[in-house]
Design a protein that fits this description.
Blueprint: E1 2-10, E2 19-27, E3 30-36, E4 47-50, E5 55-58, E6 60-65, H1 81-98, E7 101-106, H2 112-121, E8 129-132, E9 137-138, E10 154-155, H3 159-171, E11 176-180, H4 193-205, E12 209-214, H5 217-226, E13 230-233, H6 239-248, E14 251-253, H7 256-275, H8 285-312, H9 332-341, H10 346-352, H11 355-360, E15 378-381, E16 397-400, E17 403-404
Bound molecules: zinc ion.
C-alpha cells in the first residue's frame, strides 16, 4: 500500500525550514521519501492525497496523560467503576487521535491504560499509540496514594521495596516506570535520593525508562541526581539542577497548561461566589482557598523555572496531565501554545510536541519527525502554525501508521457530560 501526500508545506519536526510544495511518500506504514515536488519520484498507481495550501507535520505526542482519572467523573457511575473508566478512557483516546495526537504516554491510571493499549494494538479499537506506566510508585501516604484503590499508585518504602515495586509494574506489563517524588506541601522530596536511585537503576537494568513526578527544588534536584529520564511538572528548578538535566539529557515535561488552568478556574470561582455574596459560607470555600494557596506559589515559580531551563538548554517536551472533567481531554494544542508564552519560538514549541517528545519516550528512531524510515504518523492543519500556533487546535487530517483516520463528529473535543453539569458541548 503506497500513498503520496502531495503539494503541502512540510514542517518536518527537525527544526529545518519548511519544505514548500512538498511530497511525502508513505509505504507500508512508514515514510519512504520526503522532498519537493519533482525531486521525489511518485511511482505509478499510488494513492494521491492532495495537501495543497495545507501544512503537514509529524503526529503530536502527549507525554503526560492519565487516560482515566476519577476526576474525570466526579459523580460515580452505576455498576462497575472500572468498566465505566475503560469507556471514558477509550473515548478520551479516540478524541485525542482525531485532534492529531498520535502517541500518548500514560503516567498512571491504575492499569486502565495498559488494557486499552492492548485493545488498540490488537486493532479492537482506534486510538493513539499508548505507552503506559502502570499505577506509578510513591511512598506510603505520598502523592499519588489516592483514595480510589484501583487507580492509586503502589506504595513502597525503602530502596528494596521500590525495586520490588518496579518489578511488579513490569510484571503488569508497564512500558515505563513512574516515580512520584513530591507534593507541593513543603520543599522536600518524598522519596529519599537512595529510593529514587534504586528505582531508576532497577528500571534501567530491566530496560525501562523512568518518569519522575517532581515539583519542588529538592525533588527536582533529587530526580536529576538519580538519573531520571524525564521530570514531570518541574515547577521549581535551581540553576544547578538545570545544568545537571542539560548535561544528562533529562527531558522536562512542564505541564504548563493544566497548572494555569487549575489556578484560573479557582480564581474565577472565588470571584463568582464573592460577587454573588455567597463566598464566606460557601461549602467550596475551603477547597478553593487551598487550591489558591498552593497554586499562587506555583504561578510564582513557573516563570523563573522556565527561564532557567531555557537558558541551560534543557530539553522540553509537551504533556497535558489533563485530569479534569470540566475540560475536554485533548488539550495538547494549549500546552504547545503555553510554551510560546514562555519564550519558546513556534518552531521550538512544535518540536517539543514532536521530535523532543519522541526522545522523551525513547522512540526518537521511530517517531517525531517526517524523515525516511520513520513511522507515518502525520497531521495537517489549514494555516501556518509558524505564524499562528493556535491552529494546532484545529487539526483537519490525521494519519496513523500510514492509515488515514476518518474524522467523525462523535469524537470532537468535549468534556464528559456530568449529571450535575450543562457540559458535553464542544468546549474548544
Ligand atoms: Zn500526572
Amino acid at each position: 500500500m503506497k500513498t503520496a501526500i502531495v503539494g503541502g508545506t512540510i514542517i518536518d519536526g527537525t527544526g529545518a525550514p519548511p519544505i514548500e510544495d512538498g511530497v511525502v511518500l508513505v509505504e507500508e506504514g512508514k515514510i519512504a521519501a520526503v522532498g519537493r515536488e519533482g525531486e521525489v519520484p511518485i511511482p505509478q498507481g499510488v494513492e494521491i492525497i492532495d495537501a495543497r495550501a495545507r501544512f503537514l507535520l509529524p503526529g503530536l505526542i502527549d507525554c503526560h496523560v492519565h487516560v482515566y482519572y476519577p476526576g474525570f467523573v466526579p459523580t460515580p457511575p452505576r455498576g462497575l467503576p472500572q468498566a465505566y473508566a475503560g469507556v471514558v478512557a477509550l473515548r478520551n483516546l479516540r478524541c485525542a487521535l482525531q485532534a492529531g495526537v498520535t502517541t500518548v504516554r500514560d503516567l498512571g491510571s491504575g492499569y486502565i491504560a495498559l488494557a486499552l493499549k492492548t485493545a488498540i494494538d490488537r486493532g479492537l479499537v482506534l486510538g493513539p499509540r499508548v505507552l503506559a506506566a502502570g499505577a506509578g510508585i510513591c511512598i506510603t501516604g505520598g502523592h499519588g496514594s489516592g483514595p480510589v484503590d484501583w487507580c492509586s499508585a503502589l506504595e513502597a518504602d525503602g530502596p528494596e521495596a521500590v525495586k520490588q515495586a518496579v518489578r511488579r509494574e513490569r510484571k503488569a506489563g508497564a512500558n515505563l516506570i513512574k516515580l512520584l517524588a513530591s507534593n507541593r506541601h513543603g520543599d522536600f522530596s518524598e522519596f529519599t535520593i537512595d529510593e529514587l536511585k534504586a528505582g531508576v537503576e532497577e528500571a534501567h537494568r530491566l530496560g525501562m525508562r523512568v518518569a519522575v513526578h517532581a515539583s519542588t527544588f529538592s525533588a527536582t534536584k533529587a530526580a536529576a541526581l538519580a538519573g531520571a529520564d524525564t521530570i514531570e511538572h518541574g515547577i521549581a528548578i535551581e540553576e544547578e539542577t538545570a545544568a545537571i538535566m542539560a548535561e544528562k539529557g533529562i527531558v522536562l515535561v512542564p505541564t504548563l497548561w493544566v497548572l494555569h488552568d487549575i489556578f484560573e478556574e479557582a480564581k474565577a470561582l472565588k470571584e463568582k461566589y464573592q460577587k454573588e455574596g455567597e463566598y464566606r459560607y460557601h461549602p467550596d470555600r475551603e477547597r478553593i482557598e487551598g487550591t489558591l494557596r498552593v497554586y499562587t506559589g506555583i504561578m510564582e515559580d513557573i516563570p523563573r523555572t522556565m527561564e532557567i531551563v531555557h537558558k541551560h538548554g534543557v530539553k522540553v517536551a509537551t504533556g497535558t496531565d489533563n485530569i479534569r472533567a470540566t475540560r475536554p481531554f485533548a488539550m495538547l494544542h494549549r500546552e504547545i501554545e503555553f510554551l510560546t508564552r514562555y519564550g519558546y519560538s513556534n518552531m521550538e514549541a512544535i518540536q517539543a510536541a514532536t521530535k523532543t517528545a519522541a526522545e522523551a519516550l525513547g522512540l526518537a528512531e521511530e517517531l517525531g519527525t517526517i524523515e525516511p524510515g520513520k513511522v507515518a504518523d502525520l497531521i495537517m492543519v489549514d494555516r501556518d502554525p509558524l505564524q499562528d500556533i493556535a491552529v494546532l487546535g484545529e487539526v483537519s487530517w490525521v494519519m496513523k501508521e500510514g492509515k488515514v483516520v476518518s474524522a467523525s463528529p462523535e469524537w470532537r473535543r468535549r468534556p464528559v457530560r456530568e449529571p450535575w453539569s450543562q457540559g458535553g458541548e464542544d468546549a474548544a
